């Protein structure tokens, strides 16, 4: 499930079809969907899910081994895997067990990770004997996203799932609402405030709109988007920052100011998605263009051709490890720009966006090139080597979402 897209008109499609990049984008779409439906989802359905309990694995090693008993599974994993199975089915994965396992996974998640206040705890061990009950706003956002996804996929449960999501949101508003918009990270409040959980909360709100949630979701989406446009983005550079003081100001210490290229891409995608729903594209498009420009110019290593982790406030490199998820957000941002620019006279900018899609796709496929097809590498060092570690399950959501965006875009030409 993804934020809705408007169909492009025939004149736009006809004009776009002349672009030499589009055939390559269609090929990329086919390769990635084939990989997803033919390799990744079958493997993770077989080895990354416990059919008896409904528990999803945190990681899979190169020999498909689950993490050892007693290891912790973060709360974000289940909603992400539920989304991956549901959206993967929509994209062409034919195994009838996929939706059954998504439903069973949601039941396990609700029974295991939601506390008595309808908020989500941080992690639970594989043997369910150890519980990390810490609050993390990031996990709440993914719980809501998972509930929205399941509410659409399972109509018989829609009312119950939306009601549960409403209870979670109302509790968040009671305990963590910030008077200037968004949410605190803790109660009582403590610094820093963070933009990243709000990004995923915006994503969840848009998904809740699609699921038929009430106006509160639309209102919260608008509040978070406005917060991003007015507080998260530094007007001096156009870069979106990660950490803030308790009044949503940037910290005075430059060492505490961080800019993540992957999040520039992800916010560009989300803000354009939100703006196209609200008829505010003219406001959001220049912001998104600048976010992508910063990420590509300052946050993509020209040698590896991959987006790396973080920049300093002056947009110089800080952490040059390049993780898989950043490449998926680069791909989504390029698609969102290409879609939006197709509705404007700016053909040259759209061609740049199409080229960006292909660069991001090339980077992503590098991570997927592993001996056991259907797994991936996660961390690419500056020296060109990859960290040797199990594949994190949480990456599949990023990959599936990017493939879904790509497939929807490829159908328009």
From TrEMBL:
BP GO terms, sorted: carbohydrate metabolic process
InterPro entries, sorted: 6-hairpin_glycosidase_sf, 6hp_glycosidase-like_sf, AGE/CE
What is the protein name stated in its UniProt record? Mannose or cellobiose epimerase, N-acyl-D-glucosamine 2-epimerase family
Q: Which GO terms describe its molecular function?
A: isomerase activity
PANTHER family, per database record: N-ACYLGLUCOSAMINE-2-EPIMERASE
Kindly indicate whether the keyword Isomerase belongs to this entry. Answer: yes
Q: Does the keyword Zinc apply?
A: no
The Swiss-Prot or TrEMBL record describes its family as follows: Belongs to the N-acylglucosamine 2-epimerase family.
Q: Could you list this entry's UniProt keywords, alphabetically sorted.
A: Isomerase
